[in-house]
Specification:
CATH architecture of the largest domain: 2-Layer Sandwich
Strand content: 25-35%
Number of strands: 27
Distance between the termini: 21 Å
Structural class: alpha+beta
Helix content: 25-40%
Number of helices: 16
CATH class of the largest domain: Alpha Beta
Radius of gyration: 26 Å
RNA sequence: CGGGGCGUAGCGCAGUCCGGUAGCGCGCCUGCUUUGGGAGCAGGAUGUCGGAGGUUCAAAUCCUCUCGCCCCGACCA
């Protein structure tokens, strides 16, 4: 168990939040995890609230991270045979009623367009009452229904299958309680919608895309995930099976980072999409859908960042290297700038994104803090001394913690002076190391906050006294039993892990922690975002 | 959507109890000096006090309504 909370060593004074912020203007995680999260987003200029309730503005630095995610994911979708397309934002209300379960799942959070015109009445611009739509349009909360309506026209025989389409889009779910990136009324995502001739092929697709998500999370985001399936209660509305990847945040809570659904014939029946199979018989098409959203940016923040600011895995960092010039006289400035330009060019030639911070109204220290809070993995300081010695001063955004080390010592360890050529050639290696270390650090954190638990007493102690995390428990109860546990401990079954996701010590059958019924395997219970 | 808290300059806040016409720090602009971990001095600009009504000679302050954010619940990616 890692020491999850340093607040115990601090006086629990009712001081205003601002007094508890660090010099960086960030509330320490130990004081308030949610304030910390918002401070990070603010300091790193990732996003902010807009004039519209529950909707956020994604600022350039935040959007650049999303664009990097998009690129990585899109490449993987293409590599697995998918193509992109685009379907409408609006869905006729009647479409949603065709798949009952699906409609019920989203009914409570739909934005509905009912009019199509404004009119100035008594000098006030308002909705023209005479412009009512014959059929209201629902702003898509997800696109299964409208996409399957279209697939009906595209599918006649098994030769038309499979259809492997993805779309990048925004969707709207009228959430009551929102948090930047994690849950907003409008969000950006991708949704894959595939059509198959057989159940087996659709099931394979469901699993394959889950694997794509897990690969992306672990190798690009450096976020370790556990692959599993949802319980019936947590399943996507209208799916026969929902598979997911679950990640652990620094407060021990689980975050669903991606889902892949096997939809069976539910949507093809709803839209009446049949095909002629090889035997010449009409059959309903088998479907999958899968998606990840801008929520992943939230996952990224909550997995890696520290009390100084954002920490980004190099593969998703919009800027890999920032160069900060140091000089006194104009003559020095000239030489330093010339060198900075050269270093930038040489690194750019290696495919790295480099920012030369040539603002002359800030002192170097201010720039250091700013770029650290924005998560730039490597800083190069270039000053007259470096020019003389032929070295570059490299500073890493983070290094793996060493127990008992003072912040000053750690700062020193992050900094190194390296012969110029060696430094330039070595930066990709450093970035690769950081990428790996971030993953290992997150993995170690998750391990430290995971427990195998066999009794309700231990379960209660874990979540109420020991900070909680992932509890590997045997659970064989009903949905009602799950609700009961949720009410008592605020925990839910995050997933039923796939067999190869279960560590050796957690394998095997047992008896349900709540009901004592026999249970074939352990599940992960946790508090969740 | 229920309970609690908060909206005052770009950011963080004081002022609200007890009405008298708005202030502090940071940031911003100009100039000079500075620059290897958040610069100094001098001068300067910036506010429909979240919004709408009301009470009053007078409202950031009192009353009513409303919008938004944060926290805790219910719901959810």
């Amino acid at each position: 168990m890692a020491s999850p909370d340093k607040s115990s060593s601090q006086p629990k004074s009712p001081a205003p939040q601002s007094d508890q912020k660090t010099g960086a203007g960030i509330t320490p995680r130990s004081v308030s995890y949610s304030d910390w999260y918002l401070d990070i987003i603010h300091k790193a200029e990732l996003a902010e609230h807009s004039a519209v309730r529950g909707c956020m503005v994604i600022r350039p630095h935040g959007y650049a991270i999303w664009e990097k995610m998009q690129r990585e994911l899109d490449d993987r979708f293409k590599a697995t045979g998918h193509v992109n397309a685009y379907f409408p934002l609006f869905i006729p209300l009647s479409f949603l009623t065709r798949e009952e379960q699906h409609a019920a799942g989203f009914a409570k959070e739909c934005a509905v367009v009912t009019h199509h015109r404004l009119k100035t009445i008594d000098g006030v611009v308002q909705v023209d009452p005479d412009s009512k739509l014959e059929e209201p349009l629902v702003v898509r909360p997800t696109s299964e229904t409208i996409i399957w309506h279209q697939y009906k026209n595209w599918i006649q025989s098994y030769r038309d299958l499979p259809i492997l389409i993805n779309q990048w889009a925004n969707v709207v779910r009228w959430e009551l309680r929102t948090r930047l990136f994690l849950r907003t009324a409008e969000f950006l995502w991708q949704e894959g919608h595939t059509a198959h001739a057989t159940e087996a092929e659709a099931l394979t697709e469901t699993q394959r895309m889950l694997d794509v998500y897990a690969d992306f999370a672990e190798n690009v985001m450096a976020v370790p995930v556990i692959k599993g399936r949802k319980t019936p209660g947590e399943r996507f509305a209208g799916a026969l099976d929902t598979m997911c990847i679950e990640a652990m945040m620094q407060d021990g809570k689980a975050l669903q980072a991606g889902t892949s659904h096997y939809l069976g014939q539910n949507f093809s029946k709803g839209a009446d999409v049949k095909f002629l199979n090889r035997e010449g018989k009409l059959e309903y098409v088998y479907a999958t859908s899968w998606g990840v959203s801008t929520r992943l940016v939230g996952a990224l923040i909550m997995t890696h960042s520290d009390d100084t600011g954002l920490i980004l895995p190099p593969k998703l960092a919009p800027i890999h290297v920032v160069i900060v010039p140091i000089y006194r006289k104009d003559e020095e400035k000239e030489r330093v700038y010339a060198e900075a330009d050269k270093v930038k060019a040489e690194l750019s030639a290696q495919g790295l994104t480099v920012k030369f911070d040539d603002r002359d109204n800030l002192q170097p220290g201010a720039k250091f803090y700013e770029w650290e809070s924005k998560g730039v993995p490597i800083r190069i300081e270039i000053g007259p001394k470096d020019l003389e010695k032929g070295v570059l001063c490299l500073v890493r955004r983070f290094v793996l913690e060493q127990p008992g080390e003072t912040p000053e010592a750690e700062r020193k360890r992050r900094k190194s002076f390296v012969p110029r050529a060696e430094a330039i050639a070595g930066i990709p290696t450093i970035l690769a190391e950081m990428q790996k270390e971030l993953y290992l650090r997150a993995l170690a954190f998750r391990a430290a906050r995971s427990r195998i638990i066999d009794s309700l007493e231990d379960f209660e102690r874990f979540f109420k006294q020991e900070g909680g995390g992932f509890a590997w428990v045997h659970f064989a109860g009903s949905s009602d039993d799950e609700d009961q546990l949720s009410k008592r401990f605020e925990t839910t079954v995050r997933c039923i892990p796939l067999p190869d996701q279960i560590p050796p010590e957690a394998q095997g059958s047992g008896t349900c922690i709540l009901t004592g019924q026999p249970s074939p395997q352990r599940v992960i219970m946790a508090k969740a975002y």
